[in-house]
Amino acid sequence: KQWYQRRVRGINLSEMDRYNFQTQLEHLQSKYIGTGHSDTTKFEWLVNQHRDSFASYIGHYHLLDYFAIAENETRARVKFNMLERMLQPCGPPPEKPDWKM
């Protein structure tokens, strides 16, 4: 083995491979909001997950039908409720400490 190679899960990664992987990851994180970035907080990540889930439920009519039957509501009411919950799916954001402002 050469000194610049590392073994990760049975795959040899050179310095260049790791650099390419990192740049591709940064590109994806800048392109898609839901993938997060290095400064993403736990709260922001959870909000993205909840919003993605609600969007998927609304977009797939059979899932919307399932929720409507389970809640004994119309599809339109369930869709409306989900859209309202997308505004603040995890409640109000937590207070930031003074030293982070």
Q: How do the strands of the widest beta sheet line up side by side?
A: 1-2
Q: So what's the oligomer here? A: single chain
Q: How much beta, percentage-wise?
A: 5-15%
Query: Tell me, what's the shape?
Result: flat
The end-to-end span amounts to: 48 Å
* Mean pLDDT across residues: 81
- List unreliable stretches of 5+ residues: 1-5
Salient structural properties:
6% strand, disordered N terminus, single chain, 101 residues
Describe the structure.
The chain is mostly helical. The chain has 4 helices and 2 strands. The protein has a two-stranded antiparallel ribbon. The protein is flat and about 55 Å long. The N and C termini lie far apart (about 50 Å).
Secondary structure: elements and pairs:
Layout: E1 6-8, E2 11-13, H1 15-31, H2 42-59, H3 61-71, H4 75-85
Antiparallel strand pairs: 1-2
In short:
56% of the residues lie in helices and 6% in strands. The chain has four helices and two strands, in the order E-E-H-H-H-H.
